[in-house]
Amino acid sequence: MSSKDTTFIYCDGSSRGNPGPAAIGVSFQDNDGIEFFFLSEKIGNATNNVAEWQALYRGMEEAIKQNLQKIKFRLDSELVVKQMIGEYKVKNKDLLVFKNKCDSLRVSIPNFEIQYIPREQNTRADQLANLAQDSKT
Questions:
Q1: For site-directed labelling of 82, which of 11, 62, 73, 117 has its Cα 20 to 30 A away?
Q2: Contact yes or no for 116/12 (Cβ under 8 A)
Q3: In whole angstroms, what is the distance from residue 2 CA to residue 81 CA?
Q4: CA pseudo-torsion sign 105, 115, 122, 15
Q5: Nearest to 95 by CA among 25, 137, 46, 41
Q6: pLDDT (tens digit, 9 = 90+) per residue, 72-82?
Q7: Dist CA 80 CA 39 (whole Å)
Q8: Residue range of the domain that includes 23
Q9: How many domains does the chain have?
Q10: Is residue 61 assigned to a domain?
Q11: Is the whole-model pTM more than 0.70?
Q12: What count of other Cβ atoms lies within 10 Å of the Cβ of residue 128?
């Protein structure tokens, strides 16, 4: 992948019970929509919003590890997107921890964008979160 190429990182968190058993799914895709990396992880008990933030955080962490330069994060959580861009205040202390962690990672990503997308456009990340939810380990 050349440094001019954009990486699209689809993130999703899920919680069964809210709070309840939670998991994240993150899919790294190139300009052609080809997935080249993914995460599918259980995160213990959490609310759905915490799971959504955790998915973004893990996606950012991994993007930095892979030294990706131009990234567009896509989430179907309007709350997380609007809190990340500062349109909404973060009042919940658990979410504020993630907002601060994500803000500190953001400085290491030269070209950072984040966008809300409808759930139908986030099927792969949702699938990865559900795979983790359903796994026995």
A1: 62
A2: no
A3: 27
A4: positive
A5: 46
A6: 999 999 999 99
A7: 19
A8: 7-134
A9: 1
A10: yes
A11: yes
A12: 25
